[in-house]
Design goal:
Largest sheet: 6 strands, mixed
Strand order of the largest sheet: 1-2-3-4-6-5
Distance between the termini: 40 Å
Radius of gyration: 20 Å
Number of helices: 12
Order of helices and strands: HHHHHHHEEHEHEHEHHE
Number of strands: 6
Strand content: 5-15%
Shape: globular
Structural class: alpha+beta
């Protein structure tokens, strides 16, 4: 299922795989294809990934490979997603999804490899199950933001219904995600993304009625307004959302450290203070405070 060796480099570059990883991936391909056990696992994992293509919430759980698998284990899920390419591209074509949106969506694989390198200092994927959303037709990059086809759950559905919204539990929704390495989270960029999403899903998933956008993120923690000016991109992003009621506050200190500084395991005492956001995250923790995951929604 993997592309031939002379085609693999082009596919990896289309997926934005970092250039420093290309030679290793090409060299390990022969070892992978010659290892019966690894080939069996690759086949099974690709099959689990593309099964129920396009069905929200049906993505498989990926097991971490043992440390003794070495470099092959490090790159294993990159091979999985490369082998899944023909399936997701066919699904995109069946939906009439433009090639440029397909390419930018799937290129998030390379971005996640860059996230891993920043956090761990080497190649790999921190959360390969996240990339399964892209390769199963559930998630799309539309401008600055990503939009995941999802369903309103018990608590979020109850919250939006209680607020008088037309949607409720079990109805389709778009789960909004904010990516790193994509420039400022400006209001203009977000406006454009939301407009693109309205048009995209109405055209390519016309049988699904999306009336609600939701977001689960530390960026929606209202405490950020104590540290950032009202005209900051993050505060203005927060202001798009209506708070979702019915949730217990859950401490989420490591998420802002991971997203702002690149590594959730960094010691709090030494976190840099170069930007307003860095100072907000670090100073709050050093003062004994906690960050919490925020949840919000707005009508589409």
């Amino acid at each position: 299922m993997l592309p031939a060796a002379d085609e693999l480099a082009d596919e990896l570059l289309d997926l934005a795989v970092p250039h420093e990883d290309i030679n290793d991936l090409l060299a390990l391909r022969e070892r992978l294809m010659g290892d019966a056990g690894a080939r069996w696992l690759l086949d099974r994992t690709v099959d689990a990934t593309v099964r129920d293509m396009g069905k929200p919430g049906a993505a498989p759980e990926y097991a971490p490979l043992p440390a003794e698998s070495g470099a092959l284990g490090t790159y294993f899920y990159v091979y999985v997603f490369t082998a899944a390419l023909p399936y997701v591209r066919a699904y995109h074509r069946s939906r009439g999804i433009p090639d440029d949106i397909s390419r930018r969506t799937l290129a998030d694989l390379g971005r996640h490899m860059a996230v891993h390198r920043r956090a761990r200092g080497g190649p790999g994927l921190l959360h390969p199950e996240w990339n399964a959303l892209h390769f199963r037709g559930e998630l799309y990059q539309l401008g600055r933001l990503q939009f995941q086809r999802a369903v309103l759950g018990e608590r979020m559905g109850g919250a939006v219904a209680a607020a008088g919204h037309s949607a409720g539990r079990g109805d389709p929704c778009l789960n909004l995600h904010i990516t790193d390495f994509r420039g400022p989270l400006s209001p203009e960029a977000c406006d454009r993304s939301v407009a693109l999403a309205r048009e995209f899903f109405a055209r390519h998933f016309s049988e699904e009625r999306y009336e609600t956008a939701i977001c689960h993120s530390w960026l929606l923690d209202p405490q950020l307004k104590q540290y950032l000016p009202a005209d900051s991109n993050i505060v203005r992003f927060q202001d798009r959302f209506r708070p979702a009621t019915g949730y217990e506050r859950e401490v989420d200190d490591t998420a802002p450290v991971a997203f702002v500084f690149g590594d959730r395991d960094l010691p709090v005492a030494g976190l840099p203070r170069r930007t307003k956001v860095e100072r907000a995250v670090g100073d709050h923790l050093r003062a004994g405070g906690h960050w919490y995951g925020g949840r919000g929604w707005f009508p589409l």
